Amino acid sequence: MAILMGVQFFNIKPVVYGAFYDTTTQSAPLSTSAYPITLNSTSESNGLISIVSGSRITYSNKGVYNLQFSLQLDNSDSQDHDVQIWLKKNGVNVDFSNSIVSVPSKHGSINGRIVASWNFLVSVNQGDFLELFWQSDSIYNTIAFYSAGTTPTTPQVPSVIVTTWQI
Predict the structure, then answer these.
(1) pTM of the full predicted structure?
(2) Residue 33 CA to chain centroid, in angstroms?
(3) Phi, psi of 85 (to 5 degrees)
(4) Is the pLDDT assigned to residue 10 strictly greater than 90?
(5) What is the CATH code for 13-166?
(6) What is the 3-state secondary structure (H, E, C) of the chain?
(7) Is the pLDDT score of 63 beyond 50?
(8) Cα–Cα dist 143/112, whole Å
């Protein structure tokens, strides 16, 4: 720290961040399998966090990171169904990161919908990667993308949104 004319200057490290989303509808063809949640678009990034192999959120800097996500879950069946969502680090399940979300049933011609959203604080080393995984107890659940609306005009609904930054 330096002081110049009564003003203190601190060594401030650069902000490391990334914001990503997906524009596809993701399905789980088998209820007994786990699937990586994919991301196909970058909305903001300073280049130190990137998506590798479609699902791996890869970090160039060692540190503690906040990772937040939201998933647009959709159920086309007449019964409620559950989805489990959890975090993997370098391909290994992160203990105590799993949650179960019940996706409401279809009502009339409208699919049941719910947004799952939470965040994690994770320590990573340079080159580590994090992935979100999901499992559905039914083939009727999807992570859904919606096109822009026309009446009224509304933006698209990405199936997945992920933001992550160093804290």
Answers:
(1) 0.90
(2) 19
(3) -135, 130
(4) no
(5) 2.60.120.40
(6) CEEECCEEECCCCCCCEEEEEECCCEECCCCCCCEECCCCEEEEECCCEEEECCCEEEECCCEEEEEEEEEEEEECCCCCEEEEEEEEECCEECCCCCEEEEECCCECCECEEEEEEEEEEEEECCCCEEEEEEEECCCCEEECCECCEECCEECCECCEEEEEEEC
(7) yes
(8) 12
